[in-house]
Amino acid sequence: SVVIQECYVQNTAREYAKLYAAEAEPLEGFGEVPEIIQIFLIHRPANNIPYATVEEELVGEFVKYSVKDGKEVNFLRRDSEAGQKCCTFQHWVYEKTNGNLLVTDLQGVGMKLTDVGIATLAKGYKGFKGNCSFSFIEQFRALHQCNEYCEMLGLKSLRTTHQKQRKATSTKSKNLPNSSTIKKMVPKKSKEPRDFLSSEH
Predict the structure, then answer these.
(1) 142 Cα distance to chain centroid
(2) 3-state secondary structure of 35
(3) d(Cα 8, Cα 87) in Å, to the nearest integer?
(4) Which of 25, 113, 124, 152 could form a disulfide with 108 if both were Cys (CB 3.0 to 4.6 A apart)?
């Protein structure tokens, strides 16, 4: 059933998030690591919808750190710490699974995430039907821009490692000139998190 698959997706992503945390937390300066909350499957034999899911209620502002079409995986969200760490988590899982699996739809309140998705390169990889199209993996590979957390974990840049990527290095920041230059000039402390979250309402 869809509900069972949903549980499997979220709890598998949660296991990856735990492994990610175990690697990232000891690193100096990494700080808090995003956590995917647990989702429980309950069976209600007397009910006309026999399976349901139960999870902790997240209180606060719900933010999508990566969206389904991939266009914003790294665009509006990358200025927030949670957003950057989510992008790094996606990169880390991608590298850990040799590019076969990507955790998508990272969303939640602060560092607590839920309703995630999984995209796989091949149908049936690790038992996943892949509730997201593998084109998300291609988009992620093309759009992901490594940040300081990727560097801390020693992740390899996806731009240089992939053969399909254009050979020319000059085009690297062409499509996002503003974001990449602004980021370097603005000291972190002066950023108001409200600015880029207000559009979520």
Answers:
(1) 15
(2) strand
(3) 22
(4) 113
Structural tokens at position 180: 């990449």
Q: Are 121 and 49 in contact (CB under 8 A)?
A: no
189: number of Cβ within 10 Å: 5
| Alpha carbon distance 73, 83 (integer Å) | 9
What residues are annotated to the active site? 105
Q: Which residues pair with 102 in a beta bridge?
A: 119
Helix (H, G, I), strand (E, B) or coil at 56: coil
Per-residue model confidence as pLDDT tens digits over 57-69: 889 988 888 755 5
Sorted by where each starts, the structural domains of the chain and their CATH numbers stand as: 2-153 (3.20.200.10)
pTM comes to 0.72
- Cβ 69 vs Cβ 145: under 8 Å: no
Cβ count near 192 (within 10 Å): 8
